[in-house]
Amino acid sequence: MSAGRHAAPARALERARDGAAAPRRGHGGVGILVYNIDCAGGMERQAARLAEQLSRCGRRVAVISTGDPLAALRAGRPLRLVERRARTVVYYRLPFLSIGDYGTWQELYETLAAWIVHRHAWIDTLYAVQAPTAGLHAARIAPVVERPVVVKLASSGNFGDLATIERAGDARARRALLRRVERVVALNDESRDEALAAGVMPERLATIPNGIDLHRFDASTAPAALPELGPAEGREVVLFVGRLDHQKRPDVLLEAFARLAHRRAGARLAMVGDGPNKGALERLARERGLAPSRVAFLGVRDDVPAILRAASVLALPSAQEGTSNVLLEALAARVPVVASDIAGNRGVVAHEREALLVPVDDAPALATALERILGDPALAWRLAAAGRARVESAHAIEEVALRYLDLFDALPRRPPPSSLRFVLRYLASDLTGPAWMVVRGLARIARGLARRFGRAARGAGRHGAVLARALVGSGVPRR
Q1: What distance in Å separates the CA atoms of residue 194 and residue 132, rounded to the nearest whole number?
Q2: Domain check: are 255 and 160 in the same one?
Q3: What share of the chain is helix, strand, coil (3-state, %, to 5)?
Q4: pLDDT-derived band of residue 449, with 50, 70 and 90 as boundaries?
Q5: 286, 309, 312, 308: which is closest to 297 by C-alpha?
Q6: For a tag on the chain, would you pick the N or C end, based on fewer CB atoms within 10 A?
Q7: Quick one: average pLDDT of 436-441?
Q8: φ/ψ of residue 248, rounded to 5
Q9: What is the pTM of this model?
Q10: Which domain holds residue 461?
Q11: Does one domain contain both 204 and 228?
């Protein structure tokens, strides 16, 4: 690879090292709020990627997230409630089960997040990923912990953050919370326009794209074997990576591939990911005579760089995207791309320059574009080279992290509240429902111990009941 290809990430890395040695304003830490950090989704991977890069820049980071203990057990690994990675990143996971009162669970998340932020006085900025979830939680706890809040709009369009807020029954209150945060980060022009329409002031808006670790997608990565697709010789792999749901339009890709398969004997389709539509898609593949010889459903994989190295072309037929992570990854891996002509994709690539863009839900156009790339090596090479140059110039994670640090360091802030002030502000807030729930649970445990282990534990039960009554008398609401 030429020296020019390394220039942009090298400059960004040099800036990152300079920032780690002498940050522009203090050495403040960041609290990142995001649901399900261990999920394979793009939003979650971006949050983890940014946390790691901020750490490399010399900042301390606390990731306050959630986790599914049942999913962890199915995967053969326990859910780690507290996990320290490297020296300056700590992960907190609140166990979440899809049972019970979801509203109470959300309130408990807010209470624990507030406590964690207060406990770590070095956190001087809250960064929340996805406005309808972690963004609203951060806005609600901000008056209690007295930290500035930055909310990232993770996606746009009909499936985006602000559209989700508008569909909520209390949309007006949620919009008001969002307008109250110090900064809102948009990924692209579409997301920015939606924020302005929702009432976010222009001076509170920043546009920062998603970032990618370019070194993970260097040519030194060995291609995945993909035996599910048959012998490698003469094989042309069309790759899909994403959640198997309606938004991503994998059914449209299957219809397009059915057309392509009749014209190119070596074409194979690899579907990487999982989701609610997987069963229906497998049936559709069988009905079209594609499975199992021409189409393989590979499930969730952790070797995406190697799979990309084995791909001939990436297909991204989504109806809506913010900034697609797999699009950035394919460009970084020098894989030519056929993508839907939507605002999120146009913010990264231009038609015929870094990718081929086709209308949403147009299976014939998608099949034609895929065939163009498979049948024209010169076109495929040109698109791949331009795509790599594009992500090097605008999406290196080192540069993206520095833009976030510039944003965080410019925010007004004051010293964190004392413990007494924190408790008083917490009791005066509307976050106190979980406190009653926890106290009531402790009282039940104490009474159970009393019944089982005798007089000493009975005393503990009485003390637990007295504590519960005292808190109720002090105005902690029952929920």
Answers
A1: 14
A2: no
A3: 55, 15, 30
A4: low
A5: 286
A6: N
A7: 52
A8: -80, -10
A9: 0.81
A10: 432-473
A11: no
